[in-house]
């Protein structure tokens, strides 16, 4: 299967589906009355649409572009959040003061949670440990324990809280206050207010960049703009003009595009997040409200085999051959960061020390740390838990010029992810592998006894298996060229010097006559 990236936009009693990278309208699907803010499941197989005027949620199959089920919920549902396993959804019922908990595999409501007055948005922590609900008429955020489906805390925020988003590390909650024209930043460990960020007029929704955790985006309904927030500086770094009365917005999985639904002029603004400029504007048949963007199907699933009977295959292919190879069935990328990694300086050297280099070996999975647990509601997918260690070698020079090396490992990296990991016959084994690239991010900071370094690491996790793979071949390799002999250096060095082909006249013998670009 070749995966496409779509945008699902709620219109008047329908959802319009666009191909994100061609901006082409793929389909329009009828749903309930006045659909609000949809959400795609993390596995990419479904989109849940709350129908504000019908008191229902429509479940759309992304592969077939059809409605699988219509689920009755509370009054005036507005927003949806879905847990990381794509099995449970949380729907805010703004007219009932409740949240409906939906089992996605069975399309049924399994619990109803009472929250504040006028709940309008809902977000879930990326590890699934907490659910947050903004209560627009109570000026609060309810914190829900998803294990017990009970409210465990209530956080006061600004006036008419609306959109919610969590930082990629789950440490901070960003709450858009529509009546206060600002964003509350909450410490999720203490539920305390960290900061208030002023934005535009009547802000509505907020979206995080899934690739670059530094940026979040807020739609300003009254200002016809989008505020770009720095999650490190906790301030607005730029403001982007969009269409009239922007509401819902979402970022593509690669972090390069921001889609904004403009209710006031029936348009969609597509923003290039690298330049923070408008890349395109699409007209819609009715005023759009919400938008959710993502791949059709899971990026973790394997692709279908190539059809070798395809008449358009390359003419140079002469045969199909079987090779034994370790095939990658699934892979995913994460980033790890150690902002203040401290290493003790070596003894025996004469301070002060200077930094020479720091090199890293590829990460290794700690033996015995792997735990693979199948997910019942997601056939062929498993919860994969393991620990990674990354060795390093630090080289320092003391004041006498003597070099010292310090070896060790970075702090353990504990992983808890979802991977394609289907059951197999007993004779076949899947392998879990990791590949890392680690680098120093800032200049080292020395004290009298330690050195402090910021370190970042890219971690790719792979599920592999040894298989016989059928591949197209171009025949056997051609006859290779003759090997190049290493030249023997003549005893008389002047022989080479007098040979103009071996020692040409130096091009930099004379000073340059003018500036050049070379």
From TrEMBL:
Matches recorded under Gene3D superfamilies? YVTN repeat-like/Quinoprotein amine dehydrogenase
Q: Which domain of life is it from?
A: Bacteria
Q: Which residues form the signal peptide?
A: none
Q: Which InterPro entries match?
A: Haem_d1_sf, Host-pathogen_enzymatic-act, Lactonase_7-beta_prop, WD40/YVTN_repeat-like_dom_sf, YVTN_b-propeller_repeat
**What PANTHER family does its record include?**
DIHYDRO-HEME D1 DEHYDROGENASE, PROTEIN NIRF
Q: Entry's NCBIfam families?
A: beta_rpt_yvtn
* Name the record gives this protein: YVTN family beta-propeller repeat protein
